[in-house]
Amino acid sequence: MRRTAACLGAAAVALALAGAAPSPVHVNGGRLKDLLLGLAQFGQNPEGGVTRVGFSREDQAARDWLIERMKEAGLEVRVDPAANIHGRRAGTEPALPAILFGSHIDSVPKGGNFDGDVGSMGALEVMWTLKDEKAAPRHPFEMVVWSNEEGVHYGKGVFGSRMAARGPDAGELEATDEDGVALAEWLRRYGLDPARIGEARLDPGRVASYIELHIEQGGVLDRGGVQIGVVQGIVGIDRYHVTLEGFANHAGTTPMAERRDALVAAARLILAVREEVMARPGRQVGNVGYVQVSPGAPNVVPGLVRLPVELRDLRRDVIDDMAGRVRARAEAIAKEAGVAFTMERYANDEPALTDPGLQDLIEASARAAGYSTLRLPSGAGHDAQSLGRAGIPIGMIFVPSKGGISHSPRERTEWDDVTRGAEVLYRVLRELDKR
Ligand SMILES: [Zn+2]
Asked: Residue 215 has what pLDDT?
């Protein structure tokens, strides 16, 4: 059937063009599946997913298993003081900077078997493929499995990659969990010396680039029937504490017109956040994740509300503009309701854009393999962002998540999509090696 390009979407065009001459697959999808199923044993739960939180017995067991698998693939394995596992294959030109790639194997509680695992086992499969081919890359090839990416344990994400990029925040290693165990103690349990955490730092001058394969964790690729996502960047995140302070009074005796009801103002503010975020085209998102109401009784007019506003986008100016609009709306709402209003930023992660040249390379590599592609932002955080912020060129490859489900035992990526992701990773790395 003959169709003109004009009637097809960009992704379909990519598929149609690439479909003309698909080239053979290099990686071994069966072996990759076996690696993923092997990893899935650790922390397996009855729902079919895993609970393998960073710095736990399950995590430790999975890491020991992984280190053995990496050695079998002929890699020189090293664990840095931040518990990142490095597996290196020497290059023929040792003076060249390393090509880095990898992901993580820790999960959230009751997580799935694909988040992080696909990129980590995909990286190992690429190493196996190079071994099978007796390949002799010019650059050192180094896979890295970063520690405690999810940051569920100790509350701060992308731990290992942050240590590699910039080191700990003040007091971070001394922070204790609900069992009273410090993060430093977990490093010692892993056989590491927390005093040497600085040695986990990467020299950006010794890294050519970092490529991460990951599941999308959203539904854009699955809905569109697209096989490979070319990530434009990892969105920036701003979080604000908002307080609305009215007057708590008797709910039976205070006439409606005289109430200074902080919760009514909060309800209007929550809707205003949604309206202001959706006021422009684009993929920016905003969220109010909870409300704390005080005093919180059925017969008392709510006097005080605290809530967080979270805003995400790839562009800093869009985040700032949304925040400004939300603030203006909130001020007007608060004035009308007779309540005092404050809004203070308490956390911000800058957007981490991927390298435009690496985006082009990922897209071209996917198309050469016969796969459809789409460029999209990542709404979730990833280890790549740490390296990007340290000035290392980053690229990210996404594969579809069925139904957009992630951080759930029902998280799933088709095995063929997993293989396609690893194949694109392989092709990107081989091409980078020529540069
Ligand atoms: Zn992840």
From this structure: 98
- One of 3.30.450.40, 3.40.50.300, 3.40.718.10, 3.40.630.10 is the CATH number of 5-234+361-434, namely 3.40.630.10
CATH topology of domain 236-349: Alpha-Beta Plaits (3.30.70)
> What is the CA(195)–ligand 1 centre distance, in A?
27
pLDDT in tens, 79-138: 999 999 999 999 999 899 999 999 999 999 999 999 999 999 999 999 999 999 999 999
| 55 dihedral zone (left: phi>0; alpha: psi -120 to 50; beta) | left
Q: Is the peptide bond before 255 cis (omega within 30 degrees of 0)?
A: no
How far away, in angstroms, is 131 Cα from ligand 1 center?
27
Antiparallel, parallel or unpaired: β 394-399 and 207-215: parallel
pTM of the model: 0.85
Separation of CA 295 and ligand 1 centre (Å): 39
In sequence order, which ranges of 73-201 are alpha helices (DSSP H)? 117-132, 159-165, 183-189
CB contact at 8 A, 238 and 351: no
Residues in the chain: 435
Distance of CA 419 from the midpoint of ligand 1 (Å): 18
Distance from Cα 126 to the centre of ligand 1, integer Å:
19
Pairing of the two strands 304-313 and 236-245: antiparallel
In the reported structure, the alpha carbon of residue 217 is separated from the centroid of ligand 1 by a whole-number distance in angstroms of: 8
pLDDT tens-digit readout, 350-366: 899 999 999 999 999 99
Give 109 Cα–ligand 1 centroid separation in angstroms: 13
Which stretch of DSSP H or E encloses residue 67? helix 57-72
Q: Which residues surround ligand 1, an ion (CB under 5 A)?
A: 115-116
Give 37-67 pLDDT, tens digit per residue. 999 999 999 998 999 999 999 999 999 999 9
**How many angstroms is it from 397 CA to the middle of ligand 1?**
12
Helix (H) or strand (E) holding 29: helix 29-39
Q: How far, in Å, from the CA of 177 to the mean position of ligand 1?
A: 22
Note the pLDDT of residue 420: 98
Confidence of residue 348 (pLDDT cuts 50, 70, 90): confident
CA distance linking residue 203 with residue 125, whole number of Å: 26
Distance 6 CA to ligand 1 centre (A): 36
Distance 333 CA to ligand 1 centre (A): 38
